[in-house]
Amino acid sequence: MIAIRRYAGPVLIGLAALLLAWAGWSYWQAGNSPEAESGHDRDLALSAGKQQIAALNSMDHARVDAGLRQWLNASTGPLHDQLRRDSAQSRQRILQARTSAEGSVTAAALTELDGRAGTAQVIASVEIRLTPQAGAPSVQRKRYEAGLSRTPGGWKLTSLTAIPAGAR
Questions:
Q1: With contact defined as beta carbons under 8 Å apart, do 127 and 103 qualify?
Q2: What tens digit of pLDDT does each residue of 52-87 get?
Q3: Using only C-alpha atoms, what is the Rg of the chain?
Q4: 157 φ, ψ (degrees, to nearest 5)
Q5: Could you give the number of structural domains in the chain?
Q6: In terms of domains, do 74 and 136 share one?
Q7: Model pTM?
């Protein structure tokens, strides 16, 4: 009986140390697994996609140049090139319309993610509040499919396509 008591303390300490080591290793494995990395990529891509889609549906007609810069900052690749190419025409149309737009994403989901290639696809429902310089504001609802690419500056839109009602 005395021998059991003498060894019980060190045995319990040893078992506790083994349990703690196993728990630490399991925690480290879970945090460094491909599934955890994929989940992190998914969260970042979805969050960026929502922000970028809202940005491309927003414009303050009193601050057109800042709005156009915001559009360029939200995009990369072919979409960025198109926005840059069309910026003078866009600026003129916005100034003539004298209407501000504020887009907010009401729902979004990632439909594809390739973490290795750094590409993703997002679908989103957007509510756009249009405020003319004179007159009453109105609300439009639109749906989009967007392509994203991971860049050194984070996820950015490479495409933005309106989805007609009843599609998909």
A1: yes
A2: 999 999 999 999 999 999 999 999 999 999 999 999
A3: 26
A4: -75, 135
A5: 2
A6: yes
A7: 0.77
